[in-house]
Amino acid sequence: MAGDHGLDPHDARVTRFFRDRHLATLTTLRADGTPHVVPVGVTFDADASLARVITSDTSAKARHVGAAGPEGTPVAVCQVDGRWWLTVEGRAVLRRDPESVAEAVRRYAERYRPPRPNPERVVIEIAVTRLLGSLPPAG
Q1: Side-chain half-sphere exposure of 132, counting CA atoms within 13 A
Q2: Is the dihedral of CA 56, 14, 81, 5 positive or negative?
Q3: Which of 22, 48, 54 is nearest to 124 (CA)?
Q4: For a FRET experiment, which of 39, 96, 126, 129 has its CA 20 to 30 Å from that of 88?
Q5: What is d(CA 132, CA 120) in angstroms, rounded to the nearest whole number?
Q6: What is the rounded distance in angstroms from the CA atom of residue 95 to the CA atom of residue 49?
Q7: Does the pLDDT of residue 4 top 90, yes or no?
Q8: DSSP letters of 19-54?
């Protein structure tokens, strides 16, 4: 698919790109509106249209998302592998409940490796509104 075109979350190429181990960057907005971009691991649940990022409750990204409250805030997560890329756009909320954290940790461990113990762990949960990218052909 050509770059900057919308992708279907159930497209086999999207599924494959999210199965492969890629680091990503998460862009959140500071209170003054400037972007804050940091490297993250991200997982994707096509059926629920959710992307998840685990982090510490004290991180800047968690503070930015948490400050938006239950309505959430716009964010973007981008993965790059050579000429191939995939960007997730959506509205992020901060989840602290044990069930949400456990599910995010499980998915992270499947894609990357089990994360180190962290009693301050929270989840940035992104309700996906758009997938953009340029992905290798199916096959």
Answers
A1: 11
A2: negative
A3: 54
A4: 96
A5: 32
A6: 16
A7: no
A8: HS---EEEEEE-TTS-EEEEEE--EEETTTTEEEEE
Spatial CB neighbours of 98, under 8 Å, sequence gap ≥ 6: none
Beta bridge partners of 134: 85
Query: 39, 22 in Cβ contact below 8 A?
Result: no
User: For 11-57, how does the pLDDT look when each residue is reduced to its tens digit (9 = 90+)?
Assistant: 989 999 998 888 899 999 999 999 999 999 999 999 999 999 999 99
Q: What is the DSSP letter of 20?
A: S
Q: Which domains does the chain have, with CATH numbers?
A: 5-134 (2.30.110.10)
Q: Is 82 left (phi over 0), alpha (psi -120 to 50) or beta?
A: left
**Torsion sign across C-alpha atoms 102, 37, 132, 16:** negative
d(CA 123, CA 93): 8
pLDDT over 70 (residue 121): yes
